[in-house]
Design goal:
About 35% of the residues lie in helices and about 15% in strands. α2 packs across α4. It has 10 helices and 13 strands. Bound molecules: nicotinamide-adenine-dinucleotide.
């Protein structure tokens, strides 16, 4: 009989891709979210619209499944998480604590929690040429206010459910996941999607707005690598939180230039220093990831951005925001 899995947040970006990945491997999948996937139909065997802040809904969501991938969260890009702290902490605390308890009561075999690089302390991320973050750098804690503190707390809740009840929990810390079929406008989008949208809408030689001075640095991981990493971690017996991301550090200015090259456009930048830009620099140390999973993300930023830019460009054409019938800019050779 097929292993039955629950994927929460399955109307969202990463979990929607994860559902496709698990279906392709023969799992029976129930997706749960407060909304359907926005850009294509789910491939889940069952999809239930449930608000997982509510305890009875968590019990309903986990019924009859063997494994839980818990990705549901109220979240967005830096502009959203810096202005909705109370709402985020309220919603995500309820989702995560109820989901853990529902998993325990239902004897779930394996449970995966999706944490974030936002749990890392601000004092380790205040230069652009930042040292890559090792998992143990999380303490002494000084997480991203609101969103990051809740993630750190929920990681610990997973640990306690393992220690006290033997629930087989895994916690993964994502570092800037991007790719097609994710939010690209409306305020919840992250920087790669926002930059792709701005450049797709721009004319040759246009100026686009960049938040901050553009020198802030990050690493970015393509969605296909992300879902493979999640899956590999779930099969492992590794218990402690682990990074999942790329360890190639680049600035937002370099990211803009890369997308402009893909688009075949000459783009200039105007800096808005009043907008939130998050920590000054953040990179993933993948030593533990390589040791534990014998694997690490392999899709290059150039390859991932080409696919993402093309998808966002096509969305903008389909929704009438780009009035061109021409195909997206020719793909440049992946580096
Ligand atoms: P997303 O916003 O696309 O997906 C999250 C989904 O959770 C949404 O579809 C949303 O409707 C759903 N959700 C919110 N509240 C809910 C509720 N009360 N009940 C049921 N569903 C609810 O975000 P994503 O990028 O796919 O992120 C997935 C997970 O990964 C989240 O836990 C997020 O915090 C974590 N994460 C993502 C990134 C990233 O770069 N995308 C980085 C770090 C961590």
């Amino acid at each position: 009989m097929n292993t039955k899995v629950l994927v929460t947040g399955a109307g969202g970006f990463i979990a929607h891709h994860l559902v496709n990945y698990l279906k392709a491997r023969g799992y029976w999948v129930r997706g749960v979210d407060i909304k359907q996937p926005e850009y294509e139909k789910t491939t889940a065997d069952e999809f239930e619209l449930l608000d997982l802040r509510l305890w009875p809904n968590c019990l309903q969501a986990v019924r009859g499944v063997d494994q839980v991938y818990n990705l549901a969260a109220n979240m967005g890009g830096i502009g959203f998480i810096e202005t909705h702290k109370a709402e985020i902490v309220h919603d995500n605390t309820l989702i995560n604590i109820h989901m853990l308890e529902a998993a325990r009561l239902n004897g779930i075999e394996r449970y995966l929690y999706t944490s974030s690089a936002c749990i890392y302390p601000g004092y380790r991320q205040n230069t652009v040429d930042v040292t890559p973050l090792r998992e143990e750098d999380a303490y002494p804690a000084d997480a991203e206010d609101g969103y990051g503190w809740e993630k750190l707390y929920s990681e610990r809740a997973c640990r306690h459910y393992h220690e006290d009840y033997g629930l087989n929990t895994h916690s993964v810390r994502f570092h800037n996941i991007f790719g097609p079929k994710g939010s690209y406008d409306g305020g919840r989008e992250k920087s790669p999607a926002a930059i792709c949208r701005k450049i797709a809408l721009a004319d040759q030689d246009d100026i686009i707005e960049v938040w901050g001075d553009g020198n802030q640095t990050r690493s970015y991981c393509y969605i296909d690598d992300c879902v493979e990493g999640i899956y590999r971690l779930m099969q492992s017996d590794y218990r402690d939180p682990i990074n999942l991301g790329q360890d190639r550090l680049i600035s937002v200015n370099e990211l803009v230039d890369m997308v402009a090259r893909i688009a075949g456009k000459n783009i200039r930048k105007r800096y808005d220093l009043t907008k939130p830009q998050g920590v000054r620099g953040r990179n993933s140390d993948n030593t533990r990831l390589r040791e534990v999973l014998k694997w690490e993300p392999r899709i290059t930023l150039e390859e991932g951005l080409e696919l993402t830019y093309r998808w966002i460009y096509d969305q903008l054409v389909d929704t009438g925001r780009i009035r061109s019938l021409e195909p997206a800019a020719p793909l440049v050779a992946a580096g």
